[in-house]
Design goal:
With 263 residues, this protein is of the alpha/beta class. It has two domains: 4-79 and 155-262, P-loop containing nucleotide triphosphate hydrolases (Rossmann fold, 3-Layer(aba) Sandwich), CATH 3.40.50; 89-154, no CATH class. The protein has helices at residues 48-56, 95-99, 101-105, 110-123, 139-152, 169-186, 197-203, 234-249, and strands at 4-15, 20-32, 37-41, 63-68, 71-72, 80-83, 157-161, 189-194, 206-210, 217-222, 261-262. It binds adenosine-5'-triphosphate.
């Protein structure tokens, strides 16, 4: 059985006040297996975050369904952890306390909170910064805290919405390497939203290319390349050319026109 199945998913946003509606996603179908590293790739506005939010259970499809281990996703759950573009840390809490916050909510004692936080602090390479506050850390370090916080809950599915988009190219590259290392050592299933073809090719075992407005699955590409990925290799660049071709083919003919349909 597939780990996650997205079946005939459509999402329409209705704006009752303005009397308009917008179809963000149309007939989305795919399934993924456990331990895959799936990149959802597409241009701005193609519905990547909308799809991720529905997998997280923050929102529901207008029609169709999303199943995890055969069970329909209806709401948020501890089996899914989310990492956002901005790590949304609590500025008044230290790194360690930000990471263990959910354990505190669950009633774990202080020793357990500290020990568990330390495990994930070490995992994401923040050893020595346990007592620092978010404003004392760089953007990349804050994002590591966000990742550690998501990992601590031990979710079987980690959802990442352009987590490295705000980072400089050097930090981004370090973080990509680090994430692949964590994924390889601690086997998790990851769905990672990006609009960068290169990032998807560096990270993914599978790339789901979405087409533009309304988002549809354009192509699903299974990647069988050695790691770390060699961005200068022939195979890497063949994939890159293919994906750029798909995105180019799919340029939005309606670009510049209003995107809302009047109901
Ligand atoms: N809550 C909402 N209400 C109304 N429209 C929405 C809502 N959320 C998203 N949309 C619309 O749905 C479409 C898809 O948005 P979404 O944020 O999922 O795209 P995206 O691919 O993640 O874009 P980006 O890469 O720019 O973040 C957009 O046209 C957006 O305006």
């Amino acid at each position: 059985m597939a780990f996650l199945e997205v079946k005939n998913v459509e999402k329409v946003f209705k704006d009752e006040k303005r009397g308009t509606e917008l179809k963000a996603l149309d007939n989305i179908n795919f399934s993924i297996m456990e331990n895959e590293f799936v990149c959802l790739l597409g241009g701005s506005g193609c519905g990547k975050s909308t799809l991720l939010n529905m997998i997280a259970g923050f929102d529901k499809p207008t029609s169709g369904e999303i199943l995890m281990n055969g069970k329909k996703i209806e709401r948020m759950g501890a089996d899914r952890g989310m990492v956002f573009q901005q790590p949304t840390l609590m500025p008044w809490l230290t790194v360690s306390k930000n990471i263990s916050f959910h354990l505190k909510l669950k009633g774990a004692n202080k020793k357990k909170q500290k020990e568990e936080a330390q495990k994930y602090i070490d995992m994401v390479g923040l050893t020595g910064f346990e007592k620092h506050y978010p404003h004392e850390l760089s953007g990349g370090m804050n994002q590591r805290v966000g990742i550690a916080r998501a990992l601590l809950l031990n979710p079987s599915l980690i959802l990442m919405d352009e987590p490295f988009a705000a980072l400089d190219p050097f930090t981004k590259s370090d973080m990509q390497e680090e994430l692949v290392r964590i994924w390889q050592e601690h086997k998790r299933t990851i769905i990672f939203v990006t609009h960068s073809v290169e990032e998807a090719l560096i990270l993914g075992t599978k790339i789901i290319v979405l087409s533009k407005r309304p988002g549809r699955v354009n192509k699903i590409i299974d990647l069988d390349m050695d790691r770390p990925r060699d961005t200068t290799s022939t195979i890497f660049n063949q994939h890159k050319r293919e994906i750029l071709g798909l995105i180019h083919e799919n340029k939005d003919p309606e670009a510049g026109r209003p995107i809302h349909q009047v109901i």
